[in-house]
Amino acid sequence: MQTDMQDSDGKKDFKVYQANRTLQARVGTGPLDDKAVERSQQVMDANKVDFAPIAEEFLNDLAAAIKTARANPGHPGTVQLMTTPVMQLKANASTFRYTLVSNLANIMLNYLEAVQKVDNDVIAIVEAHQQSLRLIIAKKITGDGGPIGKQMQEELQSACQRYFAKKKS
What we know:
mainly alpha; Four Helix Bundle (Hemerythrin (Met), subunit A); 7 helices
C-alpha cells in the first residue's frame, strides 16, 4: 500500500510504502544459522561471473540518462534517471569484488540525492564519474584500488563539495 505525503506547502514530498511481510512470514526472524552464512560466503567467494557485461549495461543506462539530462537539464525526472543505474552499480559491484566502483557509486548517490536541479555542472560531474567507472571496469581494478582508488574517491568527493560550495555563493 502506498501513501503520498505532503509538506507544509501542500506539495508531494515523499511516498511511504507499507512493508510486505510475506517474506518475513516465510523465513521468520532472528539470527541466521552460522553454517548457512558460511555456505553463502563460500558461494560468493567462488563466484567467477564476469562483472564487466553487467556493469556495461548499467553504464550504458547512465550514459543514456546523461544524454537525456543534457537535452532536458531542468526536468525533475533527470535526477532519478541518473540515480537508478548508479544505485545498481553500487549494489552489484561489491558482490563481484569491485569495492572501488561501489564506493564511488555511493559518493555519487549521496551527491545526486542532494542535487536540487540538474544543470551543466551536475551533468559534467556525473559524466566524469561514468567515464571513471568505465575505465575501472575495463582495467578490471577489483578491490578498493589501493592509493589510486583512495585518491579517486577523494577527488570525486571534492568535486561534489566544490559544486555545492559554488551553488551557495
